[in-house]
Amino acid sequence: MSKMEWVKLLSPRRLGSDAPGSYSFERSPFQRDFDRVIFSGAFRRLQNKTQVFPLVQEDYVRTRLTHSLETSSIGRSLGTAAGAFLKKNYDLGETQISDVGAIVATAALSHDIGNPPLGHAGEEAIRYWFATSQVAKAMYDELTPDQIKDFELYEGNAQGFRVLSVLEMPDQKGGMQLTCATLGAFAKYPGTSNPVVRQPGVAGKKFNFFHSEKELFAEVAHNCGLYEYAPYSYARHPLAYLVEAADDIAYLIVDFEDGARLGMIAQDEVESRYLSLLDDPDTASHLKDIANPVRRTEYLRALVIGSLVRGVTQIFIERCDELLNGAPGMPLTEMLPCAPQLAELRKRSVELIYNNRKVAEIIGSGFEMVSGMLDIFVPCVNELAAEKLKKGKASYRSRRLGAILTDVSTCLESPEWCNDPYARLLTVMDFISGMTDSYAVSIYRKLKGIAL
Known about the structure:
It contains 23 helices and two strands. By secondary structure, the chain is mainly α. It folds into three domains: 7-20 and 29-236, Hypothetical protein af1432, CATH 1.10.3210; 240-354, putative deoxyguanosinetriphosphate triphosphohydrolase like domain (putative deoxyguanosinetriphosphate triphosphohydrolase fold), CATH 1.10.3410.10; 363-447, no CATH class. Strands 1-2 form a two-stranded antiparallel ribbon. Helix 2 runs parallel beside helix 5, helix 6 packs across helix 18 and helix 10 packs across helix 11.
């Protein structure tokens, strides 16, 4: 295995563009990446997508949007600190310390941009439908095994790469045409859905691009010089470890804070578990000066995040050469001295928050909702395509529902799309995954005649 090089890993070349990445005085290409993502429609829709608590009425609780912004903030701190070390010890070309921070910040900002409504429950509903639905199975004779895996193992991470590289700005190759460095750092699981060829270690736990986008990611991998374990299965970009750590820190610490705010966790437990993550005996005494329990939690949360950022940065520096060699790694947060305390915090979050009855009730209902929309829209596109090819007649219902599906009227003008069940399924998944929680509930109620 050849060692990866930072000067290539930080490639400013934009996906889909033949022009070399360029720097300018006012903004680096990586800062432009951040701006492109934050002004995108897909990012804005995260304001109404579930982080942990679906359709919650409490203004304070995080959504996917606020979670992504907080993850990005942590990512910027991690990237900038790592950048200072890299600039001193490696050839980075024109890339500056702040650029490394911008790369990690943008990748972290985008990390949930492909999540369907109701988050991980939405992903599970999609997987379950494709594994059990007779409608899906009837189409499988026309799909390759790899294409089937894309849906049966459906991943919001892969949908996210599709959003960034195809769906946003679809009229140009490469979609948003983000830099290859940012897209490389974005891919925590740089491989396809085929589990046989995924790389070992945490990077092979999931997948980050569908087979429809494998050539686009190959372009990213080539420009960044990512080691290729097997066809379309690559070593992680070292900065992806920082993106993963930023996400781990954000959800582990902040979900616990939100759980306390909603009364799911006792204040004493929140404070004791946060204190267990800090190596400062004076912190407990400082808490006595803060009367408001919410302010005490916020104070401790800030200290904990700062401590974890410093710890992760140090581990990244110590393991930098290993990561450059593409060695299968584990999450950096699991290498921290406080990893046992973090694991216990995660366990308590599962017990008290993720398995909370109110959360479970809404998630269960949402599971049926996502499955129900697939029951409706997949036959719809199949009927419309068959009618366009003069192989059948679409029902009145499907013709009417076709007006709801984004881009279907344009797709029907393409004989290739009409003849390709994989492309039709991707169109349905693009539509459903792009829904906000409230829009998904609204349209499902109307489709089922519950509301008009």
